[in-house]
Every structure is written in C-alpha cells, then in structure tokens.
Amino acid sequence: MSKYKIGCALIIYGSRQDTDLPGVLAELAAAGYDGIEAGNLHACDRSPKETKALLAAHNLELAGVHTGYGSLERFDETIRFTETMGSSYLMVSGVGGQDTLEDYQRSAEVFNEVGHRCNDAGIKFCYHNHSWEFKDLGGTTGLATLYDSTDPKLVHACVDTYWVKHGGEDPAAFLKQYADRVAYLHFKDMNPDGSFGEIGHGILDWAGIMEAVSGIEAEWLTVEQDRTDKATQESVTMSCQYMRQTLGI
Q1: DSSP state letter for 212
Q2: How far is it, in rounded angstroms, from Cα 99 to Cα 132?
C-alpha cells in the first residue's frame, strides 16, 4: 500500500462545486481519489456537520484548504474552517504585491503570523507557488526571498509541478532542493503547447518527480488542474488512473 493519499482540488469543477457538491464528490470517489482540496465549503449554506457527513458518505477526506492572500482576519476565518473540518493543511496563493523584493518581505511578515496561528491549531500553513515568483529580481527570486524571510517551521511549501516548469525550473530538481520545506504537493502536467494537462499525459518527468517526492515527508499528492478541454470526469479519472497504475500510488 502506498504511503501517499491522492487528492483532487475542486478548482477543475468551477462553479459546479458550489451547486452540485454531492455529484462532484460522487465522481471523484468513483475515479479513485482519497480526498479533496477546497475553499471554505461552509460558504454554501452547509453546516460543518453536513459537510463532514457528505464527505464520509463518499469515503473522502478533506485533504487541504486553499485560499488567496488577504487580511489576517480573513485568514482567521479560514483557519477556523480548516480546524473544524479536521484538515491538517492550509494553502495560500499569492502575495501582497509581486514587483519588488520588499513586496515579498512584507508578505513574509504576514505569513509568519498566519503560520504561527496555524501551528497553534495543529495545521501546516503552506505557500503555493505559481511561475511569477521565479522572476529574477536582482539576482534572486521572489520565491527564494519568501522562503528565506519566513520561518520554515511555520511556513511550509506547497509545490506545484506545472508552475515550477512554467517558471523555467526543473520540478524534480526543485523538489530535491527544497525537500525539507515541502509539506504538500500539487500535481499538474503540462501539455506540449504549455496548457494544463492530465497527469502522465504531458511533458513532465513523473519518474523523476516521484524520485524526488520519495525524499519528502508528505501525506497528500493532490491533483490541481485548473482547467481541462475534456469532460471533467474524464480528466480527473485519467490523472488518478495514471497515478495509481503507473506511479503505483
């Protein structure tokens, strides 16, 4: 049995996750996933008890919660949701400005505070990268500055394989470089034209990525494909089948 669990971020379902969560969960359970990643599911007039029961009915867990950059007050609300749902991971995307190193340093101060609050709640706070954090800013990058300016015990890395490649880096090498920092993985492939792809059906080196992942203390490998040109159920099934059958997860 694999030591990893496979999650799927609900972003690929767009607004359907708000209007038909039971149907979405049924599709993901049928595809073979262990859990989901979502935003604040309580925003859809569903109580925590109802949401937990819905997940349990499909034998799914809440792998993690994903939010965007915002005020400490907004983070507090998301932390409460994550804690109430019994999830151990909170991801954030974006910073308060991305043009200068000072922008990243100011965001790092916010992240250290949020990370401290998450740590007190038994949650790992993780920064999710895109590709713009790899832009050269005078001999270094925004992402390197963010890592250097935050406490590694409080602010972990959620590495997105697609965006590392899109940023001009090798995902496997990057994962090895920051193995001690990574706590959560976002798996996304890249099609030859640069668009988002299903796992194992694009140009990323998954054998190399999995070799790097083997040296990381991670619980969840979560498929986070923002969009697809296929039927959503077909897309999520393709990714999960490749991870199960070819990668042996």
Answers
A1: H
A2: 10
Q: What is the DSSP letter of 141?
A: B
Amino acid of residue 227: R
How many separate domains does the chain show? Answer: 1
pLDDT, tens digit (0-9, with 9 covering 90-100), for 62-116 = 999 999 998 778 899 999 999 999 999 999 999 998 889 999 999 999 999 999 9
CA distance 58 to 55: 5
CA dist., res. 27 & res. 233, Å (int): 6
User: How far apart are alpha carbons 105 and 212 in whole angstroms?
Assistant: 28
Terminal CA-to-CA distance of the chain, rounded, Å? 8
Give the span between the Cα atoms of 173 and 208, in whole angstroms: 9
Answer for the pair 22, 235: CB distance below 8 angstroms, yes or no.
no
* CATH code of the domain covering residue 58: 3.20.20.150
